[in-house]
């Protein structure tokens, strides 16, 4: 389903366009949708040039969201849609890198909101299931707190200034181009790397933590549907099924190793898809179990 009317081609700005979700979004837009031009801005803290798509309709700009008004090319661009995926995005590192998390997420997003208002753009904000917290506790970590406060700020910008927005709440996205090394690595990315290297899969104690996992293609589809149909709400994008971390590791059929508890750990997580299904027509098409089976089948160790 094309996101845009082919008779009225639109400009699209994507923050974090060289990152995991952003690069897959650009891939999908290039393959199946009509638009005028995409500009990706990324500070490349986790984004990679290897994620770039060579296409004359896509331009990559190395730029931090906090400096979005300092680049003439971006300043003169008039996007109808802004997909804001360029934020500090992990729980545990937010404790040690508190300044980076706070400055990137609060100051960076504030500038993106001003830019969206200036251009009368529709903002598609990527929040996180971690910002909901256990029992709606957003204070588990600085990362979760900043994501929750940014969504609150976005809603207030609508009340105060008439910001056009929608939000997608992703649940543990996995798949092509996911980060597998370093402090920003995702859990499935880490398990895949450990499996390839014949290392035990590391489980943060106690291992009973439950997560909903979302395939990258479902995440991208949810973001596009939200851009097209979403209206000033938060839409959950997930599979609607939760797995314990221990249960996931068992599907790899290899050795496991427990590691100490970490701060900010969330123990429950399952996407409630009623609103996304009703208003966006979203439906999860991929599941984690099949993905892991295919990964093991196609991985030689």
Walk me through this protein's architecture.
This protein is of the alpha/beta class. The protein has a domain of 209 residues: Rossmann fold, CATH 3.40.50.720. Helix content is 38%, strand content 19%. The strands form four sheets. A seven-stranded parallel sheet has the order 3-2-1-4-5-6-11, with helices on both faces. It has a two-stranded parallel sheet with strand order 7-10. Helix 1 crosses helix 7 and helix 4 packs parallel to helix 5. The longest helix has 22 residues.
Shape: globular
Number-wise, the strands total 13
Helix content: 25-40%
Low-confidence stretches: none
Q: Taking all residues together, what is the mean pLDDT?
A: 93
CATH topology name of the domain at 11-177 and 214-239 and 270-285, in short, is Rossmann fold
Q: What is the CA-CA span between the terminal residues?
A: 39 Å
Query: Judging by the overall fold, what is the CATH architecture of the domain at 11-177 and 214-239 and 270-285?
Result: 3-Layer(aba) Sandwich
Kindly name the structural category. Answer: alpha/beta
Order of strands across the main sheet: 3-2-1-4-5-6-11
CATH superfamily of the domain at 11-177 and 214-239 and 270-285: NAD(P)-binding Rossmann-like Domain
Cα-atom radius of gyration: 19 Å
The helix-strand sequence is EHEEHEHHEHEEHEEEHEEHEHH
User: How would a crystallographer describe the biggest sheet?
Assistant: 7 strands, parallel
- Percent of residues in β-strands: 15-25%
Q: What's the level 1 CATH class of the domain at 11-177 and 214-239 and 270-285?
A: Alpha Beta
Query: What is the tally of helical segments?
Result: 10
């Amino acid at each position: 389903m094309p996101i845009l009317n082919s008779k009225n081609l639109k400009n699209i700005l994507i923050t974090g366009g060289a990152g995991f979700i952003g690069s897959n979004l650009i891939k999908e837009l290039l393959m199946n949708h009509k638009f005028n031009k995409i500009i990706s801005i990324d500070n490349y803290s986790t984004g990679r040039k290897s994620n770039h798509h060579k296409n004359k309709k896509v331009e990559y700009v190395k730029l931090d969201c906090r400096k979005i008004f300092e680049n003439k090319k971006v300043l003169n661009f008039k996007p109808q849609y802004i997909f804001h995926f360029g934020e500090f995005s992990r729980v545990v590192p937010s404790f040690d890198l508190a300044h980076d998390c706070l400055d990137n997420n609060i100051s960076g997003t504030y500038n993106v909101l001003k830019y969206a208002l200036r251009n009368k753009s529709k903002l598609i904000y990527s929040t996180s299931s971690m910002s909901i917290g256990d029992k709606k506790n957003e204070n588990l970590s600085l990362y979760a707190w900043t994501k929750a406060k940014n969504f609150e700020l976005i809603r207030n910008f609508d009340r105060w200034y008439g910001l056009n927005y929608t939000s997608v709440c992703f649940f543990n996205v996995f798949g092509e181009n996911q980060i597998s090394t370093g402090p920003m690595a995702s859990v499935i990315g880490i398990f895949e790397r450990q499996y390839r290297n014949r290392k035990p899969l590391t489980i943060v104690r106690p291992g009973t933590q439950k997560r909903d996992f979302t395939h990258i293609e479902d995440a991208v589809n949810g973001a596009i549907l939200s851009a097209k149909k979403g209206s000033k709400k938060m839409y959950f994008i997930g599979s609607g099924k939760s797995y314990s971390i221990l249960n996931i590791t068992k599907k790899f059929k290899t050795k496991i190793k427990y590691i100490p508890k970490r701060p900010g750990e969330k123990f429950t997580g399952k996407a409630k898809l009623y609103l996304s299904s009703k208003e966006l027509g979203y439906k999860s098409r991929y599941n984690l179990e099949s993905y892991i089976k295919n990964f093991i089948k196609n991985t030689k160790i």
